[in-house]
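FOLDING PROBLEM:
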Amino acid sequence: MDSRLRGNDSRKTMEIFQQFGVQPILLAAQVVNFLILLFILKKFLYKPILKVLDERKRKIEESLNNATEIERKLSQTNETIEKMIGKAALDAQKMLDETKKAIVDMKEQGQLQAQQQAQIITKAGEEKVKELQLLMQKQIKEEVSKIVMIAFAKVTGKVLSSKTQKQMIEKEIEDLKI
């Protein structure tokens, strides 16, 4: 009975195919054609397209990695530049401070030299004044001694020798100092 049922099922299936206008041999040929076409497409079209897509994917990943590396290097370069700029600013400030200090030192040194020169000039002036005072005292002594000699000669009527005049002058000078 099994075989009869199967035979019935097979007939019914054939009848359904005929009602829809399907021919089993033609259907089988179309399935074979489809499988051959699928094999050809897979062999000659699908694999090369996948290969191209994989190559593009690899290039894109490589480009992304390169971009990430470039971005990292750029940030490192920016950090290095910022450090260098900061260092340069510190160095410039240090140089400016040193220059200001040097100017202050030079100013103080100039003032010190001016004071030293003023002291030297003052000292030289004082020495010159002392020399002039001594010269004036000498001249005054000579003049006073001349006046004393003239007065002595007029009072006594005697003219003294130069030795005696000198002794008298020295005595008078000693008396004036006391």
Notes: The chain is about 95% helix and 0% strand. The CA atoms of residues 39 and 45 lie 10 Å apart. The helical segments are 2-20, 24-156, 162-177. The mean pLDDT is 84.
